[in-house]
Design a protein that fits this description.
mainly alpha
Length: about 260
C-alpha cells in the first residue's frame, strides 16, 4: 500500500470502528431496559460488581480524605480560614475527586473483571453456544452487567465521598484541632445539593455508562485466546481511564462554567 493511501485507510478504519461501537452502545442501552424485567440477574451483578469493589473504594476514600484534610488545612491557614476546611474537603470530593477517582478505581477493578469474564466466555465458546441455541448473548449476558455497573457506580461514588469527608474530619478536627462546629456549619452552608451534589451524581452516572460500555465492548470483541483476553483487559483500563478524564473536563466545563 502506498504512503498516500495510509491516512485514508486509517480514517476508514476509524470511522468503521466508531460506527460499530455506536451501534453496540445503542443496542446495549436498548437491551438494558429489557433487563429490568430480570432484576434478579441485575441484582446478582450489582453484588458482584459493587460489593467486590467496596473495600478499595472505602479505603481509598478515607485516605484521600486524610490527604485533603492536611493539604487543605495548611493552605487555608495562610489566609486565616481554617474553619472553611469542611467546605473545601466536601466540595473537592462531591464535585471532582469522588466521581473521578471512584470511576478510575472502578475501571481498574470491576471493568477489567467484566472484560475478562466476557472474554473468557468467548474464548470458551460459550457465546457461540448461546447463539446456536437462539439466545442473544448481548441481552442475556452483557445487558444485565451493563445495567448493574450503571447502578453501582453512583452508590460507590457516594460512599467514597462520605468516607473522604470523614477522613477530612478526623484529620482536621480530631488531629489538628479545627473547631467541629465551624467544620460542619461551613460545609452545610456552602454546599448546594443541586449544583454540587447533583452534578457529582450526574458525573458518576456518566462514568458508569462509560466504564461499563468500554469493558463490555472490548471483552465482547476480544480475540478468543489467552493473549487476546489479557490484551483486552489492558485496553479496558487504558481506554476507560482516558475516556473518564476527557469526559470529566467536558462535564466540568458544562456544569460549573456559570457558577
Amino acid at each position: 500500500m502506498s504512503r498516500t493511501l495510509l491516512p485514508v485507510a486509517w480514517l476508514l478504519d476509524f470511522v468503521a470502528a466508531t460506527g460499530r461501537a455506536t451501534r453496540f452502545f445503542l443496542r446495549l442501552c436498548w437491551l438494558a431496559l429489557g433487563s429490568l424485567r430480570r432484576m434478579r440477574l441485575v441484582v446478582d451483578q450489582i453484588h458482584f460488581i459493587g460489593n467486590y469493589s467496596l473495600s478499595i473504594i472505602l479505603v481509598s476514600g478515607l485516605l484521600i480524605g486524610f490527604v485533603l484534610g492536611l493539604q487543605g488545612y495548611y493552605t487555608l491557614r495562610r489566609y486565616g480560614s481554617e474553619e472553611a476546611l469542611g467546605l473545601l474537603v466536601t466540595l473537592s470530593l462531591v464535585r471532582e475527586l469522588g466521581p473521578v477517582v471512584t470511576a478510575l478505581l472502578f475501571a481498574g477493578r470491576a471493568g477489567t473483571s467484566l472484560t475478562a469474564e466476557v472474554g473468557l466466555m468467548k474464548a470458551g465458546e460459550q457465546i457461540d453456544a448461546m447463539e446456536m441455541m437462539a439466545v442473544d448473548p448481548v441481552a442475556r449476558v452483557l445487558a444485565p452487567r451493563f445495567l448493574a455497573a450503571v447502578f453501582a457506580m453512583p452508590l460507590l461514588a457516594a460512599l467514597f465521598s462520605a468516607l473522604g469527608v470523614l477522613g477530612g474530619y478526623l484529620v482536621g478536627v480530631a488531629m489538628i484541632g479545627v473547631d467541629p462546629g465551624a467544620f460542619w456549619s461551613q460545609m452545610q452552608s456552602g454546599v448546594d445539593w443541586l449544583a454540587d451534589v447533583g452534578n457529582g451524581v450526574l458525573k458518576s452516572i456518566v462514568f458508569g455508562f462509560t466504564v461499563a460500555f468500554v469493558a463490555l465492548f472490548v471483552g465482547y470483541n476480544a480475540q478468543p485466546t489467552p493473549e487476546g483476553v489479557a490484551r483486552a483487559t489492558t485496553t479496558t483500563v487504558v481506554s476507560a481511564s482516558l475516556a473518564i478524564l476527557g469526559l470529566d473536563f467536558i462535564l466540568t466545563a458544562l456544569m460549573f462554567s456559570s457558577t
